[in-house]
């Protein structure tokens, strides 16, 4: 599937979000396309290894089966329930009290991220993103405006352009989008992503 049916553009934001949730089970198991992020980390590397913020994928939410491991190229960090980024081992992750996800404990050492992988319910080619509706990642990304934002989304949820009515003032824009079929920089790149486009990604 290359994207939702054209009729979804007639939906309100609430209707589109409901459509996304109702069709999650049809996505099945999927994996991100092969991509070496090591060149990206090399471009970011200074005196220390760059920090990558990851998340624990859940197939029931339409997310990939797993994320690749980059432990040799970067420090791996996780979001915390309180909204900052913490360094921790996956074995230390804690269940969120309200959501069925696991996050780093609030006691995890703070980290300053270079790259944040962002789960998406849907996205478009300009970098607009639809999240789960809680605003968790919008708040997280607002705290780290210098970090490169890479959206993770199933190709069937990638639209050419969102309906203007779906865009909210607080929505964080992605620097790049990664699906099972492709990785691309958005049409609204930041200063950092312009620099990284010249790498071998």
What do you see in this structure?
Helix content is 15%, strand content 19%. The protein is α/β, with parallel strands linked by helices and 201 residues long. The chain has a single domain, classed as NagB/RpiA/CoA transferase-like (Rossmann fold, 3-Layer(aba) Sandwich), CATH 3.40.50.10420. The strands form 3 sheets. Strands 3-2-1-6-9-11-12 form a 7-stranded mixed beta sheet, covered by helices on one side. The chain has a 3-stranded mixed beta sheet with strand order 8-7-10, with no helix packed on it. Strands 4-5 form a two-stranded antiparallel sheet. The longest helix has 10 residues, at 13-22. The model has no long low-confidence stretch (mean pLDDT 84).
């Amino acid at each position: 599937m290359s994207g939702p049916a054209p009729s979804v553009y007639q939906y309100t934001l609430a209707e589109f979000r409901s459509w996304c949730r109702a069709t999650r089970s049809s996505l099945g198991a999927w994996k991100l396309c092969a991509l070496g992020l090591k060149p990206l980390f090399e471009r970011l590397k200074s005196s220390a290894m760059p920090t990558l913020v990851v998340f624990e994928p859940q197939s029931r939410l339409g997310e990939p089966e797993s994320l690749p491991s980059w432990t040799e190229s970067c420090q791996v960090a996780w979001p915390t329930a309180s909204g900052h980024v913490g360094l921790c081992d996956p074995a230390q992750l804690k269940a969120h009290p309200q959501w069925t996800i696991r996050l780093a404990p609030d006691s995890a050492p703070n980290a300053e991220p270079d790259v944040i992988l962002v789960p998406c319910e849907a996205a478009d080619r300009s970098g607009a993103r639809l999240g789960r509706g809680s605003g968790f990642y919008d708040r997280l990304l607002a705290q780290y405006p210098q970090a490169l934002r890479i959206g993770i989304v199933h190709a069937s949820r990638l639209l050419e352009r969102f309906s203007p009515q779906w865009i909210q003032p607080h929505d964080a824009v992605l620097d790049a989008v990664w699906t099972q079929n492709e990785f691309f920089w958005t049409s609204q790149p930041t200063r950092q992503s312009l620099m990284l486009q010249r790498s071998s990604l």
